[in-house]
Amino acid sequence: MATLRAVNAESNASTHGGAREGAGRKPKALRYASELAAAEEKIMSALPAAIESLVASANCGDVSAAKYLLDRAFGRVQTQAAALAEDTAIPFDESDLERAESKRAWCNTTNTW
What we know:
Layout: H1 2-11, H2 28-31, H3 33-59, H4 63-74, H5 94-110
Helix pairs in contact: 3-4
């Protein structure tokens, strides 16, 4: 028993579990690094032809190809919550703000809403 403790003390390793160097599953990025690099190289080499195909389709009238290219080049357009024709909210102007503030002040003084 004394020799076992002496060996463990010299190697500075524990025999009672815990994290060990090299234990556990390797991340997929490390396990498949060569396959991922090959796939990335294949995609990057095909990219110029794909872009040319999209540009040609957009020039021939393909609206979805044109929209895709514009979205990628300039970013997507911000959308509204509701179409202008369907937006029935009444605009909030200065008089509405003054009325709301006076109502809030009155409710604060009377502790009612």
